[in-house]
Specification:
501 residues; alpha/beta; 7-stranded mixed beta sheet; 5-stranded parallel beta sheet; 15 helices; 17 strands; 29% helix; 17% strand
């Protein structure tokens, strides 16, 4: 695409991308019939991060009109430029991510166009903020339709075959209510998709200003000179601890429940096309076994992220140290009661992950009582119990929610869960960089098929009305039909008789 010394620049890359799309006849012309209400969208997507962008582009390539709504300002969708604190992405740089099979849409193409091949070869992993810049370019290069600063208040399936969205437009000086209707709604709401950050119960015994979750918006400068306790030992724990240390925290103690950090990312052992394309059709017991094993084994923090912490002399790793509770001391400091005794701290950072918890998402309150979960359909064998998997939604083939009681909420199946909570039902195609293109394209094709099925009568009538002539009648000249004669007796005689004569 470029030589080591002469990057082609983004305008040239965009021209190549445009040509690629033209050669592939993308995007297709819109073909879904206009709803009786012209304001009704074919598909509305909640969330403009990587998953929402990839799905929007996939739908557009298939000729399905769609629009993304995201609560963040433009360019700040997803966690990359806000709550994420890693220096680089954890995935290998070679993964094509949301490129949808287009070489000119990859991060590598975007990077080399600006910095050249030598810079690419020297790159270890993708810097987090460069990834954010790449996704901004992705949106612009594909001209995707996104309404920013629109916060969802309610998702309300209707009996008329649409879903009503109640939103607040927060772009102006005062928030304005907005109502949107769509035939299908996709929740591309990220890692905390159907819930939010999880913290242990004892966290709520502390003043709220004295603790943060790793997914909260907080700044390292606020920790300067303080004693910081980090609860957890995963990737986000390393990122949070490193941020505190790099901004001058007096001391950082990592309180890690496990006796040792996991060494191997077991999920990589199943990172092949068979798992990408075959997982959704696996029997329940195999889906459960795969996801439960990953949960139990856990994902180790990256090598570089761990070194980013351990290189500081005032970083302290405490393995086999669960925290049982905490309180505020008389002198204002925090006392954390751990399995190894009390620990004094000024601030606690929780890197304790996310849980599906509908109570944390009031905008989904109309859906929550009706959504069928895996606990409603599957009882794991003894020894494989898993509360996190129990709470996973039991999704259909189009990532659609299914009702606990058939008919209890008409239209529920028109809401699709394209976020982390889909992992047990549908695999990792709804959020992970390695599989995001496959997941987005699979859902987009399924939605296109569903829209066709819903409008089959319309399309049949349109085919009947179709009157674009292929021929105009001038392509040939009618010929005179030849006269017909019966064969003579001589012509019908056997060949031997003719020879004898």
């Amino acid at each position: 695409m470029s030589t080591a010394s002469t990057p082609i620049g983004l305008p040239a890359l965009e021209a190549r991308l445009k040509q690629d799309l033209q050669w592939l006849c993308l995007p297709a012309k819109a073909w879904v019939p206009q709803h009786a209400d012209p304001e009704v969208l074919d598909v509305a997507i909640i969330g403009g991060g990587m998953a929402g962008l990839a799905l929007s582009a996939s739908l557009r390539h298939l000729g399905v009109r769609n629009r993304i709504y995201d609560q963040a300002p433009a360019g700040y969708e997803g966690p990359w430029a806000t709550t994420a604190r890693m220096e680089t992405l954890r995935s290998p740089k070679e993964l094509t991510g949301p490129a949808l099979g287009l070489a000119t849409l990859t991060f590598r193409a975007w990077f080399e166009a600006q910095f050249g091949l030598d810079a690419w070869n020297a790159l270890d992993k993708i810097p987090r903020l460069q990834w954010a810049d790449y996704l901004r370019w992705y949106r612009q290069a594909l001209d995707l339709d996104i309404q920013n600063q629109h916060r969802v208040q309610a998702v309300l399936p209707q009996a008329d075959g649409t879903v009503r969205l109640e939103l607040l437009n927060e772009a102006g000086s005062s928030a304005q209510p907005v109502t949107v209707r769509a035939r299908h709604v996709v929740l591309a709401t990220g890692r905390d998709g159907l819930g939010g950050a999880w913290v242990p119960d004892w966290a709520h015994q502390l003043p709220r200003e004295r603790w943060h979750h790793s997914s909260d918006v907080w700044h390292g400068d606020s920790l300067r000179g303080l004693r910081v306790a980090v609860v957890g030992g995963g990737s986000s724990a390393m990122d949070a601890a490193a941020t505190a240390l790099e901004h001058g925290a007096q001391r950082v103690d990592l309180l890690i429940r496990r006796a040792d950090l996991p060494r191997i990312n077991k999920g990589k052992g199943a990172g092949h096309p068979g798992m990408i394309h075959g997982y959704p059709s696996l029997p329940d017991e195999w889906k459960w076994r795969f996801r439960h094993y990953i949960n139990v084994q856990q994902v180790p923090p990256p090598h570089g992220s761990t070194l980013r912490v351990s290189r500081h002399a005032n970083a302290h790793f405490h393995l086999g140290t669960p925290v049982h509770g905490a309180e505020v001391r008389a002198d204002g400091a925090l006392r954390l009661n751990t399995g190894k005794g009390p620990l004094a701290a000024d601030v606690v950072l929780f890197s304790t992950g996310f849980r599906t918890n509908w109570a944390q998402r009031p905008e989904f309150a109309a859906l929550a009582p009706h959504v069928r979960q895996w606990s409603d359909r599957y009882q794991p064998p003894a020894g494989l119990e898993d509360a996190e998997l129990d709470q996973s939604p039991d999704l259909g083939p189009l990532f659609e929610f299914q009702p606990k009681t058939p008919g209890s909420l008409p239209g529920l199946e028109r809401v699709h869960c394209f976020c982390y909570a889909a992992a047990l039902s549908q695999g990792a195609g709804a959020g992970d960089i390695p599989q995001i293109s496959d997941g987005a394209q699979r859902l987009a094709r399924g939605l296109a098929a569903q829209l066709l099925s819903e409008d089959a009568a319309h399309h049949f009538e349109a085919m009947q009305r179709f009157a674009d002539p292929e021929l105009d009648g001038q392509e040939w000249t009618p010929a005179a039909f030849p006269a017909y004669e019966e064969p003579s007796a001589e012509a019908l005689a056997p060949a031997s008789a003719q020879v004898a004569a």
